[in-house]
Amino acid sequence: NTYGSVRYVEFVKSLGDIIWLGNCDQKTVYVGGLDTNGLDGDYTVSWRDKTSQVVFHVATLMPQHDTDPTSTNKKRHIGNNFVTIVYNDSGVPYLQGTIKGQCN
Q1: What is the pTM of this model?
Q2: Closest of 41, 46, 25 to residue 76, by C-alpha
């Protein structure tokens, strides 16, 4: 997906702060393996407190390249996550196992 519904966007925004990857000091900001030169998009969502940081690999914030019709670059990140959040407001039941990864 390259975009989501208004409800989806509100959900994503509620997860944390939208950060510009190009401005991240990787010594202080965890980027979860995302490229900070634009290959994986310009923005992501990050949550942090005094002791922890979480980065979200948000598929709709990652570019869809014409040279990558099967979204291999997006799957490279999302498929290696320990936790995958699926937001489904399509009205069609989500089938478990649709997104496969190293951890499931």
Answers
A1: 0.85
A2: 41
